[in-house]
Amino acid sequence: MSREQEIFDDVEGLVLEDARQTYSEQVIDHFMNPRNFGVLENPDGFNAMSGICGDTIGIYVGLDNERISRISFVTNGCGPTIACSSALTCMAKDLALKEAMKITGQDLIKYLGGLPVENTHCADLAVNTLRSALAKVS
Ligand code: FES
């Protein structure tokens, strides 16, 4: 292993140690390994929304018989925003459109094992973006 790689690993370890003081393992996992990230080709619905902090989330959905068969997200947001978007796509995949519309910010926070109060708006932004993308399904 190169010296640069050792330094990188040390720094990553320190950052993770620090993050574990604040965030659940699920939040860190979804942030470090985001699921369903990227642009979806030929979506049936898409919308992007920005939060009070200026972060933006875009969610793409593809439906098959009123069920979400494909879903992805893009964001320019912080770690919790990435974690919320990633986790929400996992929650919504394979759900009927009407069921996915019922997911709340609190459901998402519970799925993630909690979020600090200052990040609860990230969950609300992700859920509102999903709902607006579903409302635009053509
Ligand atoms: Fe604003 Fe996450 S910090 S959406």
UniProtKB/TrEMBL annotation:
SUPFAM superfamilies, alphabetized: SufE/NifU
Molecular function terms from GO: iron ion binding; iron-sulfur cluster binding
InterPro entries, A to Z: NIF_FeS_clus_asmbl_NifU_N (IPR002871)
GO biological process: iron-sulfur cluster assembly
Residues annotated as domain NIF system FeS cluster assembly NifU N-terminal: 22-136
Organism: Desulfomonile tiedjei
Protein name: Iron-sulfur cluster assembly scaffold protein
CDD domains: IscU_like
One Pfam entry name: NifU_N
